[in-house]
Specification:
Blueprint: H1 3-12, E1 25-26, H2 29-38, E2 46-50, H3 56-63, E3 67-72, H4 75-84, E4 91-95, H5 98-104, E5 111-116, H6 119-130, E6 138-144, H7 145-152, H8 162-168, E7 171-179, E8 184-185, E9 192-199, H9 210-220, H10 228-232, H11 238-248, H12 261-270
Parallel strand pairs: 2-3, 2-5, 3-4, 5-6
Antiparallel strand pairs: 1-8, 6-9, 7-9
Helix pairs in contact: 2-3, 5-6, 9-12
Length: 280
């Protein structure tokens, strides 16, 4: 879908785009092809697209033969999508809240998520998806470039933090690339990018320990400039922490931003003892 076609459609249907819904539509055909290709879709595969807008990415996804569920919150755009894709059999269109759908469905393990996500909900939606026991097997998403870098960050870098760990616990970062603002209509005020995340073949932690991992990481980053051990002492006994830090060879004064994903995972295992944890 070319930019001129987008403008004509919106004008014909007398639609004014809503900034609060993050309605910035990607119209660069090369980038759309690149995003669709990153999904590595196969015929009959189940794919969720959140925020299809006018359907530029949707058109490429259905051409790949996968079964697409596209969820659009703006009823005006759903009308256009139904008109555009009326003859397409491998597409189900729903008018609704993509975040709510991700929350309500427990098992997405056989699905892929391929979407140009609305920036306002993107981070929260990805965390919600990643922390489900049955998380997506692959996610290819367009986000703010700042968020892309936070997800892909390594320990000790400025972008490393809570979002990094909550997503990398379940996913490996395969690729990322930047998108110039002029590739969208209307152009967003911030830089954008695409990141491809693939679910790990083996979990770093048993699923039953994931809530404890989240609790430790959130507490560790609750005051970023403070020593992690001091922050964790509000939740766990000092002697338990001393032993865990000793076994991990972590300095007493280390901050959470210097602790690797693997170290956080091991720390979770070492602190997994309900009898010695203090109540919240």
């Amino acid at each position: 879908m070319k930019l001129t076609e987008m403008k004509e459609l919106l004008e014909r249907h007398k639609i004014q785009l809503t900034k609060s819904l993050g309605q910035n539509f990607l119209h660069d055909s090369n980038l759309l092809e690149k995003i669709a290709a990153a999904g590595e879709l196969t015929p009959g595969e189940q794919v969720l697209e959140i925020g299809p807008g006018l359907g530029p990415l949707t058109g490429r996804l259905v051409e790949m033969g996968a079964d697409i569920l596209a969820v659009e919150i703006d009823a005006r755009l759903v009308e256009i999508l139904r008109e555009r894709f009326s003859a397409v059999e491998n597409l189900e269109l729903r008018c609704g809240d993509g975040m709510r759908l991700v929350k309500e469905r427990e098992d997405w393990s056989d699905w892929k998520l391929v979407a140009n996500l609305p920036f306002s909900v993107a981070s929260a939606l990805l965390v919600e998806a990643a922390l489900k026991p049955g998380c997506f097997k692959k996610m290819v998403v367009t986000l703010q470039w700042e968020v892309v870098n936070r997800i892909a960050a390594s320990a000790g870098t400025p972008d490393y933090g809570l979002l990094t760990l909550l997503l990398q616990l379940r996913y490996k970062v395969l690729q990322r690339f930047k998108i110039r603002s002029g590739s969208f209509f209307p152009p967003p005020e911030v830089d954008s990018g695409v990141i491809t995340l693939e679910r790990r073949e083996e979990e770093l932690l048993p699923l039953e320990l994931h809530p404890l991992f989240v609790r430790i990481v959130k507490q560790g980053f609750s005051q970023r400039r403070k020593m992690m051990k001091k922050l964790l002492k509000t939740q766990w006994p000092a002697e338990r922490l001393e032993e865990a830090f000793r076994r991990l060879a972590l300095p007493d004064g280390i901050r959470a931003e210097k602790v690797t994903l693997k170290q956080f995972a091991i720390l979770t295992e070492l602190l997994h003892d309900s009898q010695t944890e203090k109540p919240r």
